[in-house]
Write a structure and sequence with these properties.
The chain is α+β, with helices and mostly antiparallel strands. Helices cover about 35% and strands about 15% of the residues. It has 5 helices and 4 strands, in the order H-H-H-E-E-E-H-H-E. A 4-stranded mixed sheet has the order 2-1-3-4. It is globular, with a radius of gyration of 14 Å. It comes from Goodfellowiella coeruleoviolacea. InterPro entries: SCP2_sterol-bd_dom_sf, SCP_3. It holds the Pfam family SCP_3.
Length: about 130
């Protein structure tokens, strides 16, 4: 059964809730539920925007999605994997961090010929004022 489409207003609200933390690393990290909602909704949006099963994007401990059209992966470790922490993912998703910079700074692990998400990001651009 396909997952429900992400409501863009719900995504915007979830990400807006973590913006102060993204803007200022000195801010206290949002509570687990708030952070999880922002990560999960943004990952689901990526999967919705780039349907497919050739790349697995992981943001532990919150979620992983398969996306990007291409050969389908069914067993074992996928050949195309992107993994990062929640802060880096949300910075990428909101355009606060460029894909090439994140890779160059080793903030993202990307393996496989299809694991470049640079053309798919950001998912949304919002400022501190929402």
């Amino acid at each position: 059964m396909p997952r429900q489409t992400v409501d863009p207003h719900e995504l915007r609200a979830a990400v807006t809730a973590v913006l102060p933390w993204l803007a200022d690393p000195g801010q206290q990290q949002p509570d687990r539920a708030t952070l999880a909602a922002a990560v999960r909704l943004s990952l689901r949006t990526l999967a919705q925007d780039a349907p497919g099963r050739s790349v697995e994007v992981r943001v532990p401990p919150f979620a992983a999605v398969q996306c990007v059209a291409g050969p389908r992966h069914t067993r074992g470790t996928p050949p195309n994997v992107v993994e990062t922490d929640p802060r880096t993912w949300l910075e990428l998703a909101t355009g606060r961090l460029e894909w090439t910079d994140a890779v160059a700074q080793d903030r993202v692990s990307a393996s496989g010929s299809r694991a470049d998400l640079g053309e798919l990001l950001p998912l949304l651009r919002i400022g501190l004022d929402g």
